[in-house]
Amino acid sequence: MGASSRETIRAAIASHIDLDEVPFTAPGSRLLIRADDQGLSIHEARYEVPLEESTLLRGLTVRDATGRPQAWHIPDPARITWGQDGPTLVISPQGQVIIGHLPAHWTVSWVPGPLAPTMEMEGAIRLPSRQTVVRTCLPQASVRLHSSGSTGVAHSLDEDMAASLRRFDEWMGRCPRVLPEHQDMTWLCWWVLGVNTVHLEGRGRVVVPSKIGYVGLWQWDAYFIAIGLRHGDVDLAAEQLRIALGHQLPNGQLPDVVHEAGVLTSSGDLPESDQETLRALGTSTDHLGLVPLTKPPLAALAVEAVAQAHPGDLVSELSPAIRCCQEWWFSHCDPQGRGVPCYLHPYSSGLDDSPVFAAGTPLESPDLTAYLSVQDTILARWARERGHTAAADRHEARSRALRDRLARQLDPATGFIPATGPAGPCAHLTIVSLMPLLVPGLDPALRAGLLSLLDSAHAFGIRTPVPTVARTDPAFDAERMWRGPVWVNTNWLVAHGLRTQGRATRAEALEAATLKLVIEAGGPAEYFDPLTRRRPPGATTCFAWSAALFVDMAVSAAVSARRRSA
Predict the structure, then answer these.
(1) How many domains does the chain have?
(2) Is 4 inside a domain boundary?
(3) Range of the domain at 84
(4) Is the predicted pLDDT of residue 324 greater than 90, yes or no?
């Protein structure tokens, strides 16, 4: 990457860091910096700890020698500066915040937070007050703030800033080249993947869904993130898969979450706040006692995608864990013994508050049936490629049985496959009913019905596809997580399903619409309002799977464009 390219990319990313929707942070660091009308706040990202409870300090303000507050500025992704000749802030590779190059007689002040850091000063004095106030007594003074995760030998601010920029340039040099209309957002998304990378003690490098509330490895997040990472860092992509699959329980279950303190595998591991939310929604599983928590079985789909770019034999390495997990679904999640696994908890679907769970749990849902059918198809192909004929036959037979069950469950009155629980079939039309598009060899009548739903204005065919609940459904809510907003991962799955059904042009159109949505909304949010095309207030920003799948779809669009022009 040439000097002009480096400067262009640095400027592009810096323009996105607004300290609001896009905080200031660094790869490998748990620290992130945000701004409000009181000044800057510094937080330490932790698993299941809200930002307000993980605050190191708040109200960080810089004043010149006359006492006038100075405005902050982001000149590049490695630093924050104040004033024309004022100080600079960097996050060091050692997990420290350094405020340096303080002119003489300038002040830096802040209010300590619940996680108040320790502090070192050079060329400055500390003034006692209710706030922490640092007044410089020498030019070029510095203040060094240590978070709990800081390690290593301290270097100068200039050394740390140079190292940060080198690391930034190296990471961004891996970003794939895409069509011009997608390149700026692809840079932002690739940067998000980089800065969302943290080290989980004893686990390895994890690209967390977000440093704002999601500090850990969620299973299906890891699959989507790996699919995007493969285009520039296939080793990091493979590491996400190894961590997700490497914490399997003896019975074959894969954890919902892998985090520093352990794994989340049961409803008993959920905080009470989550339990109360489920009770308020009417989707509590209290009546079932402790139930396992996992995420949808998409491992084979992700491993197959990453394996295409990986120099090693990922399939041979990771397929045993996937086979064990596949068998776990059938042996532990089929309480009626009908040969069709169910969701035992809403969280295991990934669609936490979807109205399909109004039917109760255990829930037989067409998305789960489709995922399992696809996974058996892939496992069969892997087995046959390696000469394991009997295993291949078993996987194929079960995949066909699941596919046939989907065809039988099509409701001709509604035109979709309902999820079914103890309360009977769920009448709500949600995104789960489109997931059978992923299944190869789908019954023609079912295929036609699903394509009709996707295009119908009375279902999912609105200006901003694909809402997670049909626009005309009484449960539709444009801002409420899985009750209406558009999610990049479900759009990616539907597009993948369209290609499976031989609708490549339709898939490209959906991907193009999704890319346009993320660009217009200003970045890879957790989910998007399909009516306003903006990020709803409750949606997390800088969301990793949205970033990763944007990269994947942008690469796909560039490949298609080259193919058409050849």
Answers:
(1) 2
(2) no
(3) 27-168
(4) yes
- 499 & 547 share domain: yes
Pair 457, 394 in one domain: yes
Region 22-28 average pLDDT: 96
Q: What does the pLDDT average to over 395-402?
A: 98
Pairing, β 55-63 against β 107-112 = antiparallel
Contacts of 442 (CB under 8 A, 6+ apart): 403, 406, 407, 436, 450, 500, 501
Q: Buried b vs exposed e over 47-82: b needs ≥16 C-beta within 10 Å?
A: bbeebeebbbbbbbbbbbeeeeebebebebbbbbbb
Asked whether residue 307 falls in the same domain as residue 426, the answer is: yes
Residue type, 217: L
Q: Is 213 left (phi over 0), alpha (psi -120 to 50) or beta?
A: left
Among 236, 321, 335, 259, CA closest to 292: 335
Asked if 122 and 243 sit in the same domain, the reply is: no
In terms of DSSP bridges, do strands 96-102 and 88-91 run parallel, antiparallel, or are they unpaired?
Answer: antiparallel
pLDDT at 275: 80
Which amino acid, 483?
R
Sheet holding 262-264, edge to edge: 217-218, 257-259, 262-264
**Residue 319, in any domain of the structure:** yes
User: What pLDDT, on the 0 to 100 scale, is given for residue 84?
Assistant: 86
Same domain membership, residue 209 and residue 275: yes
Q: What is the pLDDT of residue 277?
A: 81
pLDDT in tens, 440-467: 999 999 999 999 999 999 899 999 999 9
Is residue 338 exposed (0-12), middle (13-18) or buried (19+ Cβ within 10 Å)?
exposed
Which structure tokens are listed for 122? 């050079």
- 0.90 exceeded by pTM: yes
18 inside domain: no
The verdict on 384 and 440 lying in the same domain is yes
